[in-house]
């Protein structure tokens, strides 16, 4: 079976395209996973095919990335509007990172919104590969009525809902065709010495030879050919499918690519798991593409026996042998990590490019019923195994369930799955940033701990001095006690008490960056104890903190924002509006047309940053964050946080 992924921006026409491709030679079989990944099996040219239809939402990029792991090639389906080319940037980025041979299909040519040339130029801004135009549209007035193939030099007239009719190249197209063909040949000649020679000698190379070169350069992932059409009218569909049939590599190329990335032998790689989901009463279903020969239920795969093999759509058992390249579903194979490269005895982590964008949105999920707390955390852990855009952790302080998701749509889908499949209803709320407090001046105290309860008493007397430490220095403890006023063996107890006092300061928050010095004290030969000095240390420091003008400290994060360069300018005002500090931006060396923008942002602004970034970049920009340091916060904003913590 040959397998390709169709991916691209939302509403580009991907699902329509898959449907039309699959229908070219009759029946097809389609299934859709709960995560929106469509899987269509069909026959074309006496071969079995599987098309993976990746959901178009940027929040579901992980599923598109993982579909590429199982694909011999991919089709990037885009709009004919040059201004929308940027929407394809995240897909070009993952396609190029993955090394998957790609064909661009400019869809919706029935409603062009600009010149095809401009669409390609705009896409080229985000592609390191040369985009190679393989067809030019034939226009009548402002309508596109057909296309002309630049290799075979044949023209087709589109017919509604049918395969196009072969026609003569219209005379007014001939000149444009020659120019475009010359350009195509020149680009191809960069990858073929024979062709270069032919062109230099001014000879006209035969179509067959050019087709052979274009197949090779696609297989070797050197260029990205561009075809055009209109999926919903079945225009350009046959050409696209034929290009895939003749030019896309077979599964051995994928196997070699994945094996090389994982540093294992080709022959050791017998499959790749690329998608999984949970269903009620069924458990985990894993989609696998077989890359070796002879896999079947009970085969040793990743160190354990492969569970029942099923049809991905119907869930019915599959009796036929699994052939190399086949895509199948399996249940009761919970030992298979997803995604992963599968050898009989082991599973190897997939290449780094499969890592989805860092989730930007953080939410606390609270079960509507308290009884569901454990179930919620168990269920989320399970879901995170199959949903790689999801990260699950616990909120500091409260221990509440914290989820990091790709965005609002992802969050909604997650809550829906929790309710419908696992019967856990939840409410979500934003987490509050983790605040701290510190002191702004020194203070000295004298504290005496004394208790007389029945038999033995407690006595400890300490003189303490506290001072602000440098930012980031944390807690420190010193002593200048003379003459054994506080015996050596009790000093660690004073320090332990002082540390305990840092857990909650006068503002009700954890105290940071404070130095404590024990300067003097007194003890009693019978009643003094470690316990008493610990209590004295704690209470003494607590009193000292109360006099040392506590200030609120807010967390500051270092964020790395990934955006197409055209948006970089709009980020400065966004970062400034959050009282953030722009650190600068650089070209992203790993993806053409992208910048990495670095800034320091208060924790309280991260949620808003995610929102603003989404709207400023049409949902394309993402960021990752790392805690950097704490910084004082004063004024009304600080007062509001302090009173919220006090209540
Ligand atoms: N005019 C026109 N409309 C099209 C064409 N192809 C698809 N459409 C329409 O565009 C809409 C979206 O098509 P889909 O195939 O669902 O798009 P998609 O890319 O799968 O969308 P998502 O999965 O939501 O990302 C539908 O209403 C289609 O009928 C086309 O070539 N021309
Ligand atoms: Mg779709």
UniProtKB/TrEMBL annotation:
<dbReference type="Pfam" id="PF00679">
    <property type="entry name" value="EFG_C"/>
</dbReference>
<dbReference type="InterPro" id="IPR035647">
    <property type="entry name" value="EFG_III/V"/>
</dbReference>
<protein>
    <recommendedName>
        <fullName>Elongation factor G</fullName>
    </recommendedName>
</protein>
<feature type="domain" description="Translation elongation factor EFG/EF2">
    <location>
        <begin position="432"/>
        <end position="549"/>
    </location>
</feature>
<dbReference type="InterPro" id="IPR005517">
    <property type="entry name" value="Transl_elong_EFG/EF2_IV"/>
</dbReference>
<dbReference type="Pfam" id="PF14492">
    <property type="entry name" value="EFG_III"/>
</dbReference>
<keyword id="KW-0342">GTP-binding</keyword>
<dbReference type="Pfam" id="PF00009">
    <property type="entry name" value="GTP_EFTU"/>
</dbReference>
<dbReference type="InterPro" id="IPR000640">
    <property type="entry name" value="EFG_V-like"/>
</dbReference>
<dbReference type="GO" id="GO:0003746">
    <property type="term" value="F:translation elongation factor activity"/>
</dbReference>
<dbReference type="InterPro" id="IPR035649">
    <property type="entry name" value="EFG_V"/>
</dbReference>
<dbReference type="GO" id="GO:0097216">
    <property type="term" value="F:guanosine tetraphosphate binding"/>
</dbReference>
<dbReference type="GO" id="GO:0003924">
    <property type="term" value="F:GTPase activity"/>
</dbReference>
<dbReference type="InterPro" id="IPR000795">
    <property type="entry name" value="T_Tr_GTP-bd_dom"/>
</dbReference>
<dbReference type="GO" id="GO:0005525">
    <property type="term" value="F:GTP binding"/>
</dbReference>
<feature type="domain" description="Elongation factor EFG">
    <location>
        <begin position="551"/>
        <end position="641"/>
    </location>
</feature>
<dbReference type="Pfam" id="PF03764">
    <property type="entry name" value="EFG_IV"/>
</dbReference>
<keyword id="KW-0648">Protein biosynthesis</keyword>
<dbReference type="InterPro" id="IPR027417">
    <property type="entry name" value="P-loop_NTPase"/>
</dbReference>
<comment type="function">
    <text>Catalyzes the GTP-dependent ribosomal translocation step during translation elongation. During this step, the ribosome changes from the pre-translocational (PRE) to the post-translocational (POST) state as the newly formed A-site-bound peptidyl-tRNA and P-site-bound deacylated tRNA move to the P and E sites, respectively. Catalyzes the coordinated movement of the two tRNA molecules, the mRNA and conformational changes in the ribosome.</text>
</comment>
<keyword id="KW-0251">Elongation factor</keyword>
<dbReference type="InterPro" id="IPR014721">
    <property type="entry name" value="Ribsml_uS5_D2-typ_fold_subgr"/>
</dbReference>
<keyword id="KW-0547">Nucleotide-binding</keyword>
<dbReference type="InterPro" id="IPR020568">
    <property type="entry name" value="Ribosomal_Su5_D2-typ_SF"/>
</dbReference>
<dbReference type="InterPro" id="IPR041095">
    <property type="entry name" value="EFG_II"/>
</dbReference>
<dbReference type="InterPro" id="IPR047872">
    <property type="entry name" value="EFG_IV"/>
</dbReference>
<dbReference type="GO" id="GO:0032790">
    <property type="term" value="P:ribosome disassembly"/>
</dbReference>
